[in-house]
Amino acid sequence: MKTLIFSLCLCAAAVNAQTATPPVAVDAAKYPSLQAALDAVPASGGLVTIPPGNYEITQPLQVKTAETRIVGGGAATHITNKNAEGAPAFILRPPTLDADKKARLWRVQMADLRVSGNEKSGDGIFAECIEEIYFEGVSIDHHGGSGIHMVNCAEDPRVADCIITYNKKYGVDIFGGHDIVVNANHFEENQDALRCSDSFNLCMNGNNVDDHLGNGIIIENTYGSVLSGNMIEECNGTAVILDRDCYGITLSANVIAHHLKGGIDLRDACGCTLSANTFVLAHEFSVRVGKDSERNTISGNSFCNTYIGAGQDKRPAEAKTPMGTDEGTGVLVEGGVNGLSISGNTFSGLSTAGVWSTGVVKNVLVTSNLLLDCGRKLAKKSAWLVFAPKSLVLVKDNLDENSPSAP
């Protein structure tokens, strides 16, 4: 009897395999529209190839199938969103999501094409409830919304080797993701480069973030993440912001260069480490530790201006624009901070003190730092390590050329 049941199961599996529609290859050139080509993909998935050409759309292209890869011929495959009512160029979303909140699509991928918009269009690519979503080699520019906007794409979202530019909101906006990879992308002149909120395990490495109208990277209510090896330059706001209960995040080996406000702003972050970063030309602060941030470590960083040796600075002390002037700042600690270790850093050529507080702080350790040529815009003989009276601070074994005990 067992043998008979097993044989019947094998037969049923064979019948299902023969009747199920296998994944297909779809050549979009053979269809009357891009949407028709996308609709030709069965539920089992497939590969949609879009040949080089200029494709103008006025309504979002809907991707409704799992196991689907959409590939173009590089930037020569150019999809332009002409919609002026805030609609995105692409929507990647389970077709049954409105009726079934647990509906998900798995492994939707886009590669090697350009998607552009206009000031009145929406996001370049809006994706919701797609697991293991993957973007590679996509150019996304000039949208009225964000370049890539992911909502509850929880499992292993990846954005790699894309160029994301001139979008009116975020270059990449991630909500509700985990085990996220954002690597080797170029972000330029978006409002903000990237926002990652209500997520965890963001791995953001080797990106070039340049010339943003607002801020660089904003991380909110996210933990267990790493930002390393990124070049973040010339934001009109702040390079990196951690806010809304962030914890357990490492920011390491980044170059934080030329920001009108600040370098890294720990607005609400606990148990985080800032190490081996270089801060240069940050105009208001290189690091700010907000009153809601506790138990953080700032170690082994360089805080500097444009000094190039032999008593010379690369930029002038005054210029026609703030971006043209020489500047260097240190660590601003807001009153109320409890628990902070600042050790092994170099502070040099700063307009400000190396470290200063705006109010009473406690359990702050400042040790083994080097301070040279700081306080350029402070009154003469101003201290370079300054804390409000009644603060619980241990300041020890720093080499401070401004200190009365300095040799």
From TrEMBL:
Every Right handed beta helix domain range: 120-222
SMART domains listed in its UniProt record: PbH1 (SM00710)
Position of the signal peptide: 1-17
Record keywords, A-Z: Signal
SUPFAM superfamilies found in the cross-reference section: Pectin lyase-like (SSF51126)
Alphabetized Gene3D superfamilies for the sequence: Single-stranded right-handed beta-helix, Pectin lyase-like (2.160.20.10)
Protein name as it appears in the record: Right-handed parallel beta-helix repeat-containing protein
